[in-house]
Design a protein that fits this description.
SH3 type barrels, tRNA-specific 2-thiouridylase MnmA, six-stranded antiparallel barrel, globular, 30% strand, 17 strands, 8 helices, alpha/beta
């Protein structure tokens, strides 16, 4: 029997994951991570993951399971490692994924550090992912059985050493419906609770307004690929590569086709727009890779994914100094610096890296 700390968000997944850990014979303690300094200001209805409603739901689930339950205040770490990072990345003209950063720095690193210091053997979460033994015996992250709910993408930045202390009881679940039915059988009130989504620290969903409050007005120009001014904006940070709506363009393109954001230059406060085909990229440069297995000695065939639920495409990866270079067999559109590229060998995660640059071929 292992001592397991179950991260309980207040959702159906984490509740069932904790229940399965108890059923497996582990000594389980539930913990809810309070990530907001003002949880009462966040939206309710399970649209986030750190509201007062979520904390109460997590406590009720722990009571049903008969396990001890605590609330840990990680709001300071969350603001520093996730919110501040989010603002800084947009200010630099990049497009971050706050859920990736939260899983990396809060839901594993910070939580696991505390868990190990308190004598726990592992952390259990409601993520849909699996672990498989690698050739060296170390655990490797693997896609969940349910491809529609797979969360290996957002977990790919978790270091292999941390995965040695991780449990993902939902990885083998056939579907979310199966998990909800199990929650119902176990008497968990969260059985019918909607899934969490959206950026939890932007409760009104207005990302541009959130950034404006943090970064202020920074007016600039919207130009086409010929350098002609076609519009204006109040802050280049309010755009992301691939964006089509809300561009502030005063007139249509000469050919009448929609325009998309192609690049962002925060220093010049310039946003460049163009046609959809100009978004297609064939190469990605990645920095600070996290390798889920020993890096290949030379070019290796993989599949690459650049969004949490994006379509994986065949690619070739090779090391490029401290980073990596990915050559896509099929082009992708709208890939922005700051996004995370995750590389798979079949269903196993090979590496994850932050996109720093893209190329057409």
């Amino acid at each position: 029997m292992s001592r397991v700390l179950a991260a309980m968000s207040g959702g159906v997944g984490s509740g069932v994951a904790a229940a399965r850990a108890v059923e497996a014979g582990h000594d389980v303690v539930g913990v809810h991570m309070a990530l907001s300094r003002r949880p009462g200001s966040l939206r309710t209805g399970a649209r986030g993951c750190c509201t007062l409603e979520d904390a109460r739901d997590a406590r009720r689930a722990a009571d049903v399971l008969g396990i001890p339950f605590y609330v840990w205040d990680l709001s300071e770490e969350f603001v520093e490692d996730v919110v501040a990072d989010f603002v800084a990345e947009y200010a630099a003209g990049r497009t971050p994924n706050p859920c990736v950063r939260c899983n990396e720095r809060i839901k594993f690193a910070a939580l696991l550090d505390r868990a190990l210091a308190l004598g726990f053997d592992a952390v259990c979460t409601g993520h849909y992912a699996r672990l498989a033994p690698g050739a060296d015996g170390a655990p490797r992250l693997q896609r969940a059985r349910d491809a529609a709910k797979d969360q290996s993408y957002v977990l790919a930045v978790v270091a292999p050493a941390e995965l040695e202390h991780a449990l993902f009881p939902l990885g083998e679940a056939a579907s979310k419906e199966e998990v909800r039915a199990e929650a119902q059988r176990r008497g968990l009130a969260v059985a019918a609770k909607p899934d969490s989504h959206d950026i939890c620290f932007i409760p009104d969903g207005d990302t541009r307004g959130f950034l404006r409050r943090h970064l202020g007005e920074q007016p600039g120009e919207v130009v086409d690929t010929a350098g002609q001014v076609v519009g204006s904006h109040s802050g280049a940070y309010g755009f992301t590569v691939g964006q089509r709506k809300g561009l502030g363009v005063g007139r249509p393109a000469p050919d009448g086709r929609p325009r998309y954001v192609l690049s962002i230059s925060p220093v010049e406060r310039r946003v460049v727009v163009g046609a959809a085909e100009e978004l297609r990229v064939g190469t990605l440069h990645g920095a600070e890779p996290v390798w889920g297995a020993p890096p290949p000695a030379g070019p290796a065939e993989v599949t690459a994914q650049v969004r949490a639920h994006g379509t994986p495409v065949p690619a070739v990866v090779e090391r490029a100094g401290p980073g990596l270079l990915v050559r896509l067999r099929e082009p992708l559109s709208g890939v922005a610096p700051g996004q995370t590229v995750v590389l798979y060998e079949g269903e196993l995660v090979l590496a994850a890296a932050t996109v720093t640059a893209t190329g057409r071929g």
